[in-house]
Amino acid sequence: MALCRFVFLVIFIICHSYSLCFAEEDSLQSYSLDEIEKDLQSQISISDVEQIKREDLPKLEDKKKESISSEIDVSHENEAFSYTKNAKIIILNKITAKSELVEFKLGEAKSFGNISVELNRCAKNTDPLKSSNLMLIKVLDKKFNNDKSVLFNGWMDSSNLSISTLEHPVYEIIPIDCIK
Asked: Which residues constitute the domain of residue 168?
C-alpha cells in the first residue's frame, strides 16, 4: 500500500513538472544580449549622464566635521547635564547569561572575571525629552602576568548603546543611570 502511494506521488510530480515546463516555453520571449544593449544605448545617451568630477566629491575633513562625535559637548558650562557621583551599570556575562546591576562611585574600579571597570565621569541629561546618561568608562583587561591593557576608554550613552560599545567576547557593559 505504501509502495503504491509512493509510485503515485512520483508519477504525479513528474507529470506536473512536465506540464509546467511546456507552459513556460510558450509564454516567454527570449532576447539576446545584443538586443538588450542596443535598446539601452538608444534610451540613454552618454551626454545625458552627468559627469562627476573629483573636486565635486566631499572631502574627508568635511565629513569629520559633520560627524556625531564632534557635536557631543559634555562640558560643565552646558546646563542640560547634571554631573553625579554615582552610576548604575549592568555587567552581563554572555557565556553564563548572568547579569549583575552594580552601583559605581566616581574613580572606583571593580573587577569582573578578567576585566576591571572604572567609572570616571557620569553626566545625566536634565532635559525630560532627551533622557540619556553619559558615562566615561575605562575597561582594563587583566593578563596572567599582572599586565593590564586598555580594552575601552570612552563615553557610553545609555539611550544609544550602538554609538560606543565594548567589544569583548565574554562581557558586555550596559550603562543604566547616573544617580546622586
From this structure: 81-179
